[in-house]
Amino acid sequence: MSFGVPGKMMDGKDESHNLEDLRKQLEETKRQLEDERERRRSAENLSPGGSLSDSDNRSQMRSSVDSGMEVAPINEADVTLRRLVQRIAMILQAEKIAIMFYDREKGELIGIPPAYGIDDEHLKIFRIRATHGISGKVFREGEPAIFHDTAADPRTNEDPFGLLHVQNGITVPLVIEKRDEENRVIDRTTIGVLHAFNKRHGEDFNDEDVRLLERMARNVGSIIANLQMYREVVEEREELLQTFESLAAGLILVSPEGRLSQMNASAREIFGTDQEAIGKNYRDVIRNEAIEKIFLANQRGEDTPKAEIHVHVRGSDRIYEVQSAQVRNEEGRDLGLVAIFNDITEMKNIDKMKSNFVAMASHELRTPLTAIKGFSSTLLEGIDEDVYSKEDQREFLGIVVQECDRLRRLIDDLLNTSRIEAGESLTPNYSRFELLPLLEKAVMVQQQASSRHKVLLKVHNELPEMIIGDQDKLDQILTNLLNNAIKYSPNGGDVIVHAKLEGSDVLIGVQDQGLGIPKEHLSKVFERFHRVNNEDNRKIYGTGLGLYLVKHLVEKVHMGQIWAESEVGVGSTFFVRLPKDLDIEKAKAQPD
């Protein structure tokens, strides 16, 4: 008996060829059977749950992040998802696997990694509106779809399948299931779609493939949801850390074991440490007995009131108000304690300066009023009896007028300071005027006011004939500086006004041979209410507002600079630098 084409005898070569074909068919059948077994085993091994519990995952993840522990599952989840995508491709015999995630802000389904058989460049542009194509339909309706020929299927016309050379495929929704404690589904949310493209060996996808892909999509959705949740928690933590870091107040978090779990930049500066302090025991870093007592009281569960502590920071003593409290989670578990350090040094200094100002202002007001009342009463008593001569009366009235002027200056200083503090500018009146006559007038007036001092003007080079500025306010600047020079030179001596041209600026210096200013006060003499209190000048009264007003008139009105140089026991020089050609429009545009 022979096998072959009817009418022909089969030779040895043909028989050998047929045997080879049968062997190949047998090998292919074995491979298909093995693939089918592997597919079923994989499907059985994949957890059908793959869903989110009510709040355990989020709670655990937040707890880990908030406690400063490194959360490891992110890398493991990425690897697991990548392996799962590869396994899906193997089980379904698909050439390409793509995940599309729904972007709420853009209203689009966007290709995200990991993918299988698709490079990153194509994945970046693999997107479609959630209202279009078969991808959008599956996403909106939550039902899977199978397509055998993208060229002939009208449902796929709008999808960007041409980018990936898709011929056939399956699209299933990516769904997150939220379950209760009894594992019952209480909520379902569609977050995207999962594609499998191009069945290998020229075959078509079938309903069994659809069911397998749906089942595996639950696992993909669960992993993506957990990754998304993790990233959200990490982003929240980063935002919180950035907020902590940018706080002007110092903030410290201490674990229940007494270790520093967080310390922002302000706190690190207060205690002179760096990021390496994190994880150390707070006693080894802070080294402050008062703070340690507060923290120990908090750890015992005691409520502590606000406390003030003194810390030496950057070469100066600072005062901080400390507020601290124990922190517990919703279950009442101890999470440690938090402490906030607010720098109240300036506030304390202002309170002190205001108290001093009230005392000084009271004296400043009382002194001229006493003189005015005394000399006025004296004149009234002697009017009828002609007790006092015309010269005596003129002298008494002159003193009354001087003390009235002194009161007026004090009131003007207070009003001007109030306007500056309220953000209201001292309205300037700009003009072009002669500088030298103004300097000569200021020197002459002050010379007449003091018989114990010699007030001089020294011009070191040729000054500009005219300058631009507010003539009255420049006169006020010079008068104030000269008054101070005379007042703080109780033993007399020379008071010299230096003037010279430096480039496009005029430099004016008022030099005295008085008490001098200690170095630690040089940077503060222009602050409101600030006065140097020592044995030598304690009887020299003033409100501490003059130089504050001068600084405003120099910098804000004339766009200039003012500073002081001094040596205790030798004297002081106050320098004013002004532009000779002031840009009036620019000066008016300055904020108050």
Q: Give a quick account of the main beta sheet: strands, pairing sense, barrel closure.
A: 6 strands, antiparallel
The coarse overall form would be: elongated
Query: What is the CA-atom radius of gyration, in angstroms?
Result: 44 Å
**If you consult CATH, what is the topology of the largest domain?**
Beta-Lactamase
What is the count of distinct domains? 4
Structural class based on helices, strands and sheet pairing: alpha+beta
Strand fraction equals: 15-25%
As laid out across the biggest beta sheet, the strand order is 3-2-1-6-5-4
Q: What is the count of β-strands?
A: 18
The fourth-level CATH homologous superfamily of the largest domain is GAF domain
With helices defined by DSSP (H or I, 4 residues minimum), what is the helix count? 16
End-to-end CA span: 116 Å
| CATH-level-2 architecture of the largest domain | 2-Layer Sandwich
Low-confidence runs: 1-16, 42-74, 535-539
Mean pLDDT across the residues is 80
Helix content: 40-55%
| Name of the CATH class of the largest domain | Alpha Beta
Descriptive overview:
With 592 residues, the protein is of the alpha+beta class. It has helices at residues 12-45, 56-66, 73-92, 120-124, 133-141, 207-246, 265-270, 282-286, 289-299, 345-382, 390-421, 435-449, 471-487, 519-522, 546-557, 584-588, and strands at residues 94-103, 108-116, 127-129, 145-147, 169-179, 185-199, 250-254, 260-263, 307-313, 316-328, 334-343, 431-434, 453-459, 466-469, 493-502, 505-511, 561-567, 571-579. The strands form 4 sheets. The protein has a 6-stranded antiparallel beta sheet, with helices on both faces. It has a 5-stranded antiparallel beta sheet with strand order 8-7-11-10-9, with helices on both faces. A hairpin with a 2-residue loop joins β9 and β10 (316-328). α11 crosses α15. The protein is elongated, with a radius of gyration of 44 Å. The protein starts with 11 loop residues before the first helix and ends with a helix. The relative contact order is 0.06. The model is unreliable at 1-16, 42-74 and 535-539 (pLDDT under 50).
